[in-house]
Amino acid sequence: MDLLRFDGRVAVITGAGGGLGKEYALLLAARGAKVVVNDLGSARDGVGKSNFADTVVKEIRDKGGVAVADYNSVVNGEKIIKTAIDNFGRIDILINNAGILRDKSFLKLSEQDWDLVHAVHLKGAYKTTHAAWEYFRKQNYGRIIMTSSNAGIYGNFGQTNYSAAKLGLVGFCYALALEGAKYNIKVNTIVPTAASRLTEDILPPDMFQAMKPDLIAPVVAYMSHESFDGTGHVIDSTLGYASKVHFVKSVGTPLKKKPSDPVTIESVKDFWPKVVDMNGAKHIDKIAEVSMDLADRLQVFENRAKLDGDRYTYWKDYNYDSKDLSLYALGVGASVLNPSDLKFLYESHEEFTALPTFFILAGMCMEAPLVPAAMPPGKHADFTNILHGEQYIEFVDDFPGTEGTFQVRNYVVDLLDKGSSAVGIVNSEIFQGDKLLYRTQQHIFVVGQGGFNGPRKSDNSIDVQPAPKRKPDAVVEQRTAEDQAALYRLSGDYNPLHIDPNVAVASGHTKPILHGLCSLGFSVRHVLAQFGDNSPANVKAIKARFAKPVVPGQTIVTEMWVEGKRVHFQSKLKETGNVVITGAYVDLKNVGKVRPSAVSASDSLASDAIFIKIKEEIGKNVAKAKSINGVFLYNITVNGKTVKQWTLDLKTPEVIEGVGPKADTTLTVSDADIVEIATGKLNPQAAFMKGKLKIAGNIMLAQKLGPLLKNDAKL
Ligand SMILES: CCCCCCC[C@@H](O)CC(=O)SCCNC(=O)CCNC(=O)[C@H](O)C(C)(C)COP(=O)(O)OP(=O)(O)OC[C@H]1O[C@@H](n2cnc3c(N)ncnc32)[C@H](O)[C@@H]1OP(=O)(O)O
Q: Lower Cβ count inside 10 Å, N or C end of the chain?
């Protein structure tokens, strides 16, 4: 990297007779700047005189640098700037470093102590800066450094005068940075902690030794360089470390429940914990954003109150298109390895459609803090303590299409007190124009925030239903991927609990957990494929409770029971046996053919059809395929005796038992072709491209079968 040089630049450094100022002067001079070494030469209380500046100038000159000494007080800042102009004809860099202390506890602090400290730090910086400003503006170039202090930012006992002046410099820097922006004048602030005349008997001796000013000088020099583009930054630096400091503002709260309520001293008291709750606090960059931010929050508040009086209500628009559907389907485990999933993944598929659970997303209200706002005084809800407890969706009109815009009304219907925890019940109604398409209900479990004497039950709650006490009618298992939550979150639930290990641990988990809706998406796919003809439009309603967390990578085992048009289900983890979804059901319009759960029914049917044809072609007896956990076992028999046996392993983590191409679709479309592919007479890729074959899964199956069957045909 090229050295950052200051050739041709003139720097004025106040208080440069020792400590930090001296280091700045030495470093800038060594890199080619002409330097005005200003120092009044007094002790740290501003009393006395010495010739420190000459010593520094000599050191610079001895090393071949260019410098002049200046003994004016910063209170006469214009004289210091004149020294630069008289000697070097210009000024490019101004480092306001001079300072004094008059430390006393506030009771003993005199007005003179106050004024003197302000005169040197704040007024001194004003005087030098004001004098330099006209030059900076004319030449369209300037670099200004203010010097603040941790005492100003955090306050320090016995330094009320100094703390006030030092924070004043931060405000000065922020405002001046705005005024200088269009003239290429960058104004920044250093918050140094270093060994200097100001700190020598304040810091412990060991620390005093380690806090060398020369570790801070490069930071200040960089911020003074022409390549430095930042402005309005406050940079804390010590011990060779630097960090940015800025203010943050809490999310805050309206001080009333509804817009029509008055703000009273009591309501302020009630809402105070939310006023000072710093979870989700953010930095605001510009003064204009303060009012914009407030307007946004008040808008949410107004929206919340729309239509529903006392309820916390929030209206929003929700847009989606085919890409959202495919991304969601991938997030809940659909895969091209599973031919019957293609219609959820491929927008050109002739049956392309959304999974029914996709539509739950419109009702998820991540952007408006509905449950947090509904919490009673002294209780709070945020991403560190909420868990998705239950979910319901009910389609009341036609199944929605593959793209659209909805108008969504979300509101909290009840806040339940479960003793140690709270449960917020959030209803959503999803409209297109005036038409209600469907509704959802979420139970948001707020860990540890109960005990506010609220109701335990709600008439508005759509409750889970226990599964029958008999062996399940079907079981489907599917492993989730390690990256499942990382993929699922891209559908809009960016709760860090699902990806950030630190947040997960802070919320009491050992690692990030899967979104409840992701596990639900898996299980509902299983139910749909098993009993719903794999047709989302066949679904009327879905309900589930998330009983235990799932970790990405675990295997979801969905157990199903058919009772009329209701398919009860529960989901277990294969690895632990834990039941993770309970009391769940899918209400169907029509229950499809009930398929045996142990065999991948549709794949088996497709391959059976192939075998019948193969039998005709090769004149051999081919036994029916059997499937054990997705591995097909085929027997070639001659005169009742097995002469050859082979397996076709369709099992991948993503292939689901019980889900495959619909047998009838497959066979009517490509019956003869499959045989031709299997016996190597037809190139499946070409057939697919010509649109002759529509279901890619058959191609996969035939491709795998082809070589095997060819060999078998030779028997
Ligand atoms: C603001 C923006 C909104 C966005 C929301 C969604 C954001 C998402 O990113 C968040 C997620 O996806 S989190 C992941 C999915 N959820 C989970 O993993 C939760 C799993 N469940 C559990 O751990 C426990 O059931 C647990 C901890 C929930 C409860 O266990 P326990 O404390 O042991 O409860 P228990 O003693 O059994 O019961 C106490 C009372 O609570 C009711 N209850 C239990 N589980 C519930 C649940 N899951 N949902 C709703 N209510 C539940 C019980 O019925 C009982 O009440 P009562 O005595 O009145 O019957």
A: N
Enter the DSSP assignment of 467. Answer: P
- Region of residue 537 (left: phi > 0; alpha: psi -120 to 50; beta: else): alpha
Question: In this structure, which residue's CA is closest to atom 9 in ligand 1?
Answer: 495
Task: Write the single-letter amino acid at 342.
Answer: L
Res 633 pLDDT > 50: no
What is the CA(647)–ligand 1 centre distance, in A?
A: 44
Which residue of the set 71, 162, 314, 438 is catalytic? 162
For residue range 118-158, what is the model confidence (pLDDT) as tens digits?
999 999 999 999 999 999 999 999 999 999 999 999 999 99
Please tell me the distance from the alpha carbon of residue 491 to that of residue 326, in angstroms, as a whole number. 10
What is the rounded CA–CA span in Å between residue 582 and residue 547? 6
The DSSP element (H or E) to which 328 belongs, if any, is helix 322-331
Identify the CA nearest to 680 among candidates 658, 656, 710: 710
- Tell me if residue 438 is catalytic: no
d(CA 649, CA 629): 9
Is the distance from the beta carbon of residue 94 to the nearest atom of ligand 1 less than 6 Å?
no
Checking if the pLDDT of 518 tops 80, the result is yes
Interface pTM (ipTM) of the complex? 0.97
Domains of the chain: 10-244 (3.40.50.720), 249-305 (1.10.287.4290), 314-588 (3.10.129.10), 601-713 (no CATH)
